[in-house]
Structure formats: structure tokens, C-alpha cells
Amino acid sequence: MGIFKDILSGNESLFVDEIALDFDYIPHAVPYREDIQSYIASCIKPLMEKRNGRNVFIHGRPGIGKTVIIKHLFNELKQETSDVEAIYINCWKTETAFKICHEICEQLNYKFVHNKRTDELLKIIANILNKKSVVFCFDEVDKLIDVQILYSLLEDLYRKSIVLICNDRNWLVELDDRIKSRLSVGDIEVKPYNFNETYGILKNRMEYAFVKNVFDQDAFDIIAEKTAELEDIRTGLFLLREAGNIAEAKASRKVYLEFAKDAILKVKGLKTKKVESLDDEAKVLLDFIKENSGKSLKELYDNYGKEMSYRTFHRRIKELKDAKMINTEEKIAGDKGGITTIVRYDKKLSDF
Fold first, then answer.
1. I want to staple 293 with a disulfide (CB 3.0 to 4.6 A). Which of 103, 205, 320, 345 is the partner?
2. CA-to-CA distance for 70 and 157, rounded, in angstroms?
3. Separation between Cα atoms, residue 20 and residue 75, nearest integer Å
4. pLDDT at 224 over 70
5. Listing from the earlier edge strand, what are the strands of the sheet with 84-90?
6. What is the Rg, in whole angstroms, of the alpha carbon atoms belonging to the chain?
7. pLDDT of res. 5
8. How do residues 147-177 score in pLDDT, each as one tens digit?
9. The pTM is what?
10. CATH code 3.40.50.300 region(s) in the chain
11. Are 44 and 135 in contact (CB under 8 A)?
């Protein structure tokens, strides 16, 4: 009769708080990023003393906690003082000046936006915020269409800090010189977590999300290993959730190794689906990068052999990177300290 003890009944769940496996979930602490948090906090702190703050540009590959760092700091700031507004904008969803102004007004609880133009809303925003201090975060800022909004905020607001988050450091390099000069940002590269850090983060999230002791150690270990290999916490959280869902679907009281392996195969399936969804030109470019992985962006462009402007080529490279099919890395080139972009094919997701 002992076999029935391992079968989950209809009203039971392995999950205690599944939200803890959302990538946007804000944990009580952000481990292994204390130095970065301290630096950003030092840029914001002058606002609490009624002085102008400093601006920060944060970059690094997807899935390594850039957004979580800022959201955690904003939560702490709101608990600390009401004299500094903390406004978070996701430029993937809110990409134009008009949409940004509406979003800012909504976060400021200003309702009278109907039939108002962008310039009118900017004046209203300035009148409200110049009575206190403000820190903005523009996440995924490379998706921003109207970058002029940054200049307007820098010019019109008295006491402010602006935090920009982006996967690609080249976005700042290519930004309009007038805006770049006005921003005068501190540059922070967020590095991927190492294995021990990845293990610790996933273990912490697992303990919040699941009933105690339901995760078999071998099942957790293989997920942690794959997550560290991919250098993407987002994927690790997906694997934890998916392994739990597979276990529940099989009415199991434990998440066993076989369920973790099945979850990993699903990630591989997602990768295959992504490749199949590419247009013909993108597939050709991806194959070319596979054969020339490790070369610079300029070398790839010079040898691609198809008529395409450099701007278009750079955009197609960025699309492949955003789809996590390739990686790029900035390196110092030459004695004068110039920066070159190295492009590599991301084999990791296809190597399970």
C-alpha cells in the first residue's frame, strides 16, 4: 500500500508560492549584487538630501538580474522616503515620448491627460516633480523610439537621477552625442552569475516556491548545472516551474530527476521552434555566424557577401542576440583603447 503515499491527491499542490518563480518577482534581498546596488544607491542618495543625483547606464546579457536590482532598490527607496519619486518605465511596452508621459502621469496619479499633447504633459510633469526629487529607470532603453525624451527630462527637471538598462553596451556608444554628453553616465557591466551564485539563487527561489523537501536533490542539481551553463537565471526559474508542473501532472509528491530532464528537453524544443520561426535572411545570417563564430562584427560584415547596409546588418545581429541565438561581447581593440564587438554563436541551448 506504500505506493499510494507517493501519489498527489486532487486538492494538493507541490507549490506554496509559484510567483516566487517569476523572473520579475522581487526577492527580500538580491544576493551577489551588493556592490552594484551600493554604487547605484550612492548615485541616488543625493536626491534624499535635496541635491542632484548621478545617472547610471547598466548593461549585460539577458537573464542576469539587471531589472531585479533596480526594482529592489526602488522598493527600499519608497520605504525610506516620500520626498523622492521612483518611476520605472519598460521601454519595450512604452517606447514613445507620448506613451512615456502618460505612464509617468499615471504613476504620479495625475489623471487629467485627455487631449493633451506631449509637450503639455512634459510641462505638467516638470511642475509636479520639481517640487521634490525623482529617479527614473528606463529599462530595455534600446527599444526607446523617441530618445529626445531623455534630453527633455534632463533639461526640465531640477533634481533627478536617470538609470538606463540595456543588454547591449553599443546602444550608449551610438547614442546622439548631445544626449550622451548631457547624461554623463556611470557605466556598470553586470556579469553573469557563476555556478555557486546560480545555485544559491535557484535554491532560495525553490525554497520560497515549493513545499519543503519535494525537490529531489539530483533533479535540482541538473537544473542548477544547466542554468549556470546557459548563464540565464530566467531559464533556471522556468525549469524549476516546469519540472514542478510535470511532477504535478503525474500526481507525484516529489520532483524527480526524470521530470527535470523532461523540463530541459522543453527548453531545447523552444530553441528549435525559435530557429524555425526565423525568416530566410535571418537563417542564412545565423548559419554564416555559426561558421565564423568569434569574429568581430566588422569582420562579419566585410565578409558576409550580401548587399546590406551596416546599419541593417547591425540590426539583424541584434535581433538574433535578442532571440538568444548568438552572444556579443565588447573587447578593447588596439593600443588606443577602441572597442570592438565579438559575435559568437550560442551553442548552449542546442547542446542538452
1. 345
2. 21
3. 17
4. yes
5. 84-90, 133-139, 160-166, 56-59, 186-189
6. 23
7. 56
8. 999 999 999 999 999 999 998 888 888 888 8
9. 0.74
10. 34-189
11. yes
